[in-house]
């Protein structure tokens, strides 16, 4: 089984880089040729390009919810984003649309996708550091991802 | 689990205020601010800028990488080798093929293929493919996938390239890679031709759509900007910036270093956005015409600002477009989609020319800089407009000052005017404000494909935008959200 751990975000925009930081840390703890660790700042269709051909994909990204507390971790499935799936985006397609497109075109789509999202506090200030609340969450997310990989 | 959603600061807001009689009184436009890039850059080595600046934008990192690399050539006073320039342009052309493909099929396609009145649930790429067929959908994905391979092969990494260096590039390509790129370029030319045929069949043969393209609601007579080569043909990678007036006459043509002489920025109290304009004409407000310094820098603007395309198939399409639209320059904002497809074909043809150039596999790919760095400007055409990077360093090459004019920024004033004009033309007293009507207003801004806070990609993974309409008392009467 080929698995991919994919950190998504922008490493120079404070908490937006949390997914990439987590992926780096996960990579340091892995030594299995069947598991690839990668990062991307791209969304939508580029995300589709990244996950084609893998059986299992774990995505880590930042999220902002209405009532969320910075550093809070959510473990989700792509369907949890279905509220937005049919809404056309000014730029791209969202994750669920990208996955549906892949299925529609008969591409080799992953059988299982898990998304770990970390509640962000600041995603608009240029900085390579996350805010302390989000920084504190990183080891916990890394542990959850590693546990998920063996699960 | 997740309450739909989200960012208080993270989305663009358009507010349309109505008068007592229900017609449009005014329009406001705000986008989120990304803070502190200049400070973030200060004190860093200039050689890091092509890696850092590409992170600003998740949509066109390749454009920032290229503008930044060219700024470094200028900063270190070094001329890249001929093979290096060709490799950079080959890489950049592949990037254009992917970006323009995405825009047309994901953004513009749903409006035209599904129609502006189609329910939002169908007005997306899935609806488009459902209607035009899986074969075309597969071609879209394959073209993007193959050209991403080209970007990765030349650029050294997928999505975020690392090959640009002052004076050249870090890596040559071998014959095996060249041959594969040639096959991809050939297929991309065919895909470009096919996409123009789709545009013909879906838009041009539909009288209602063509009338909409040509209608006053989607028309502005502005100045146009674009990079041109020595023959005044469109060029994405290099050349001088040419600006033509609303009648199509050359107004200015400048080398990258001179950009500060020609551009200035206007500030409004209701938004932190700065609106660039032509200094020599001056800021006269959000109005079009020859006396207003508002200009546009879009695919259509590039075609308007040039005398033609440098490749044969794209040139033929260029002539056909202007002949259909009644001459040059064309002021019809929705024709930007057509121009984008002509550029897609040009990029593919240019790829093919470059990959067949005997020099493309040369290993003479770098001129080592020897001069002390001081100041450098690099300009490329990003898909969304002319992109300028300007760095000032100390003699060690450490950044003291950095200024960027991002492609999208050039079009802020025109974007605002387009939304306002479409709203004024479409929202009328006594006429119900429907989803389809609001989508037609959206269509006024879609050709610009603004990159707002595209540097952030936190979930749900798309760029939220919200339009709110208020009555004369300030009560909300309708709200349209995308990705929120």
Write structural notes for this entry.
The complex is a heterodimer of chains A (151) and B (484). With 151 residues, chain A is of the alpha/beta class. Chain A has 4 helices and 5 strands; from the N terminus they run βαβαββαβα. Chain A has helices spanning 18-28, 45-51, 95-104, 132-150; strands at residues 3-8, 35-40, 56-63, 73-76, 112-119. Chain A has a 5-stranded mixed beta sheet with strand order 2-1-3-5-4, with helices on both faces. In chain A, helix 1 links the parallel strand 1 (3-8) and strand 2. In chain A, helix 1 (18-28) packs across helix 4. Chain A is globular and about 40 Å long. The model of chain A is unreliable at 83-91 (pLDDT under 50). Chain B has a 4-stranded mixed beta sheet with strand order 2-1-14-15, with helices on one face. Chain B has a 4-stranded mixed beta sheet with strand order 7-6-5-10, covered by helices on one side. In chain B, helix 4 packs across helix 5 (125-132). The radius of gyration of chain B is 22 Å and the shape is globular. In chain B, 56% of the residues are buried. Classes of the chains: A alpha/beta (151), B alpha+beta (484). At the A-B interface, helix 2, strand 3 and helix 3 of A face helix 1, helix 4, helix 5 and helix 6 of B.
Short description:
The complex is a heterodimer of chains A (151) and B (484). Chain A has 151 residues and is of the alpha/beta class.
CATH class of chain A: Alpha Beta
User: Which of globular, elongated, flat, extended, rod-shaped describes the shape of chain A?
Assistant: globular
Poorly predicted ranges of chain B: 1-10, 453-463
Q: Architecture of chain A in CATH? A: 3-Layer(aba) Sandwich
The unreliable regions of chain A are 83-91
Which pair has the most extensive contact? Answer: A-B, 57 and 65 residues
Number of strands of chain B: 15
Q: Which of globular, elongated, flat, extended, rod-shaped describes the shape of chain B?
A: globular
CATH superfamily of the largest domain in chain B: Cytochrome-c3 Hydrogenase, chain B
- State which percent range the strand residues of chain A make up: 15-25%
Number of helices of chain B: 14
Do you know the CATH topology of the largest domain in chain B?
A: Cytochrome-c3 Hydrogenase, chain B
Provide the succession of SSEs of chain B.
EEHHHHHHEEHHEEEHEEEHHHEEEHHEE
Give the helix/strand class of chain A: alpha/beta
CATH homologous superfamily label of chain A: HybD-like
In terms of quaternary structure, what is this?
A: heterodimer
pLDDT averaged over residues of chain B: 88
Into how many domains do the coordinates of chain B divide? Answer: 3
Output mean pLDDT of chain A.
Answer: 85
């Amino acid at each position: 089984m080929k698995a991919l751990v994919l950190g998504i975000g922008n490493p120079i925009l404070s908490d937006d880089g949390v997914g990439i930081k987590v992926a780096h840390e996960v990579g340091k703890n892995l030594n299995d040729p069947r598991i690839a660790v990668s990062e991307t700042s791209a969304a939508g269709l580029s995300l589709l390009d990244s996950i084609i051909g893998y059986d299992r994909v774990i995505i880590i990204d930042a999220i902002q919810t209405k009532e969320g507390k910075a550093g809070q971790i959510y473990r989700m499935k792509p369907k949890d984003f279905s509220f937005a799936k049919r809404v056309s985006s000014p730029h791209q397609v969202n994750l669920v649309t990208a996955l549906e497109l892949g299925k529609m075109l008969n591409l080799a789509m992953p059988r299982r996708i898990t998304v770990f999202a970390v509640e962000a506090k600041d995603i608009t200030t240029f900085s390579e550091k996350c805010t302390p609340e989000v920084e504190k969450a990183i080891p916990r997310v890394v542990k959850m991802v590693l546990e998920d990989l063996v699960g | 689990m997740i309450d739909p959603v989200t960012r208080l600061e993270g989305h663009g807001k358009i507010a349309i205020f109505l008068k007592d009689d229900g017609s449009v009184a005014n329009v406001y436009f705000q986008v989120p601010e990304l803070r502190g890039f200049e400070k973030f850059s200060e004190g860093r080595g200039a050689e890091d800028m092509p890696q850092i600046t590409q992170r600003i934008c998740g949509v066109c990192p390749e454009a920032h990488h290229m503008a930044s690399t060219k700024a470094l050539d200028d900063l270190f006073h070094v001329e890249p080798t001929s093979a290096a320039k060709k490799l950079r342009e080959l890489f950049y052309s592949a990037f254009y093929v992917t970006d323009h493909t995405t825009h047309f099929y994901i953004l513009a396609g749903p409006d035209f293929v599904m129609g502006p009145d189609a329910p939002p649930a169908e007005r997306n790429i899935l609806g488009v493919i459902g209607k035009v067929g899986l074969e075309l959908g597969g071609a879209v994905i394959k073209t993007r996938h193959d050209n991403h391979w080209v970007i990765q092969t030349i650029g050294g990494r997928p999505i975020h390239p690392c090959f640009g260096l002052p004076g050249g590039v870090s890596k040559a390509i071998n014959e095996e890679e060249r041959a594969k790129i040639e096959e991809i370029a050939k297929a991309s030319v065919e895909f470009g031709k096919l996409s123009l045929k789709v545009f013909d069949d879906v838009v041009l043969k539909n009288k209602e759509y063509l009338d909409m393209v040509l209608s006053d609601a989607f028309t502005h007579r502005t100045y146009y900007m674009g990079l041109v080569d020595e023959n005044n043909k469109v060029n994405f990678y290099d050349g001088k910036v040419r600006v033509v007036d609303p009648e199509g006459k050359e107004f200015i043509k400048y080398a990258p270093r001179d950009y500060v002489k020609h551009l200035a920025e206007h500030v409004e109290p209701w938004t932190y956005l700065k609106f660039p304009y032509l200094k020599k004409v001056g800021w006269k407000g959000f109005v079009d015409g020859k006396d207003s310094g508002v200009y546009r820098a879009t695919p259509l603007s590039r075609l308007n600002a040039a005398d033609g395309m440098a490749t044969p198939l794209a040139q033929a399409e260029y002539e056909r477009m202007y002949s259909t639209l009644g001459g040059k320059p064309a002021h019809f904002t929705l024709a930007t989609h057509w121009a984008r497809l002509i550029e897609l074909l040009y990029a593919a043809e240019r790829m093919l020319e470059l990959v067949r150039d005997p020099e493309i596999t040369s290993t003479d790919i770098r001129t080592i800089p020897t001069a002390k760095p001081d100041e450098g400007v690099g300009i490329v055409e990003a898909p969304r407009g002319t992109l300028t990077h300007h760095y000032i360093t100390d003699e060690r090459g450490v950044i003291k000052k950095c200024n960027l004019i991002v492609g999208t920024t050039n079009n802020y004033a025109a974007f605002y005017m387009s939304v306002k004009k479409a709203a004024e033309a479409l929202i009328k007293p006594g006429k119900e404000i429907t989803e389809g009507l609001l989508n037609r207003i959206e269509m006024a801004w879609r050709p610009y494909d603004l990159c707002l806070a595209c540097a952030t990609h936190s979930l749900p993974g798309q760029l939220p935008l919200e339009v709110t309409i208020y009555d004369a008392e300030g009560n909300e009467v309708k709200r349209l959200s995308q990705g929120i």
